[in-house]
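Need a sequence for this fold. Nothing fancy.
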């Protein structure tokens, strides 16, 4: 009994001194395990005189229960501490600044192209795309451009394959071939824009590139007039350059429109008083347009007496250069990050 009293007196201090769960288990085995003093005494209860057994038995149970309670309390405390430590280690500091990962964005040309398309889609136009390698028929013949026309010379057009006129292949010099392809497969009314890359045998300079982007537009319906052309393009210019813009049409020539015109928009930079952007003229030349030539309608099987229409081709590169004051078209194609990151 003396031994038990000492054991019980020392137990709280020993249990409290344990710093981790593993040591606590070892101490538990020592204090109340199968080989412990308490367990050994219990097993030898039978050797005591019968009148002492209940007293000693009760004392042993009391000691066992007390020590088990102390162990459970300590275990709970150690487990809580371990959990707190884990939470602290895995704590996420949401106030830490992010690692700066550079994110890309759409190229200025793509942005401009999307903007132009959006404006025409909002006016009710469909969007179509066509092949960049075209036959001479679609690029020239069907567009009322005879075999002798200077635009067909190798000095202007990039040929993919010379051959008989019917299987001659060129890199399309404009998006206008899609006027023909679209009208061949659709009946009027037609309201469509065609964005895409076009190619010319040009040497690179500040305003010319062998490859550039166009958006072709075509409207064919009953009673379409030059006033519709001007109104539509003025609406486009105002949507793109601002509400205050005015436009003017100057006579021009294209084989596939009659009459043909060049459209100028009043300078967005100086409001028409003259500046560097508009070469001091107050006007910016932006696109070619005109009324669809009856020969083009005949080439696709439309009746020129029943329908009329207008067409235009706007240079997307030029729109981007003019609006942002970029002084060389090469900046749109060299992909210099110092340039691209500005847009
Ligand atoms: Zn100006």
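Here you go.
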């Amino acid at each position: 009994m003396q031994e038990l009293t000492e054991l019980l007196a020392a137990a709280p201090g020993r249990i409290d001194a344990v710093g981790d769960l593993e040591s606590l288990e070892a101490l538990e085995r020592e204090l109340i395990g199968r080989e412990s003093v308490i367990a050994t005494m219990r097993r030898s209860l039978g050797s005591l005189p019968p009148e002492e057994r209940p007293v000693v038995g009760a004392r042993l149970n009391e000691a066992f229960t007390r020590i088990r309670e102390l162990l459970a309390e300590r275990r709970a405390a150690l487990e809580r501490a371990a959990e707190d430590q884990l939470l602290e280690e895995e704590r996420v500091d949401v106030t830490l600044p992010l690692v700066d990962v550079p994110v890309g964005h759409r190229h200025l040309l793509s942005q401009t192209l999307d903007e132009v398309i959006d404006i025409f889609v909002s006016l009710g136009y469909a969007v179509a795309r066509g092949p960049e390698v075209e036959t001479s028929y679609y690029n020239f013949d069907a567009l009322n451009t005879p075999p002798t026309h200077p635009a067909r010379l190798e000095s202007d057009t990039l040929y993919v394959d010379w051959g008989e006129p019917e299987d001659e292949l060129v890199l399309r010099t404009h998006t206008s071939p899609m006027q023909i392809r679209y009208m061949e497969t659709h009946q009027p009314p037609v309201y469509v824009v065609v964005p895409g890359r076009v190619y010319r045998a040009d040497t690179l300079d500040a305003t010319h590139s062998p490859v550039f982007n166009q958006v072709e537009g075509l409207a064919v319906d009953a009673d379409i007039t030059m006033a519709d052309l001007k109104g539509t393009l003025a609406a486009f210019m105002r949507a793109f350059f601002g509400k205050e813009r005015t436009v003017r049409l100057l006579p021009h020539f294209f084989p596939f429109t009659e009459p043909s015109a060049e459209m100028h928009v009043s300078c967005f930079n100086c409001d028409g008083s003259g500046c560097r952007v508009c070469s001091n003229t107050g006007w910016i030349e932006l696109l070619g347009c005109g009324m669809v030539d009856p020969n083009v309608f005949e080439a696709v099987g439309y009746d020129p007496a029943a329908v009329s229409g207008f067409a235009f081709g706007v240079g997307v590169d030029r729109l981007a250069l003019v609006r942002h004051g970029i002084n060389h078209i090469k900046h749109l194609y060299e992909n210099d990050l110092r340039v691209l990151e500005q847009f």
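For context: Residues 2-89 form one domain.
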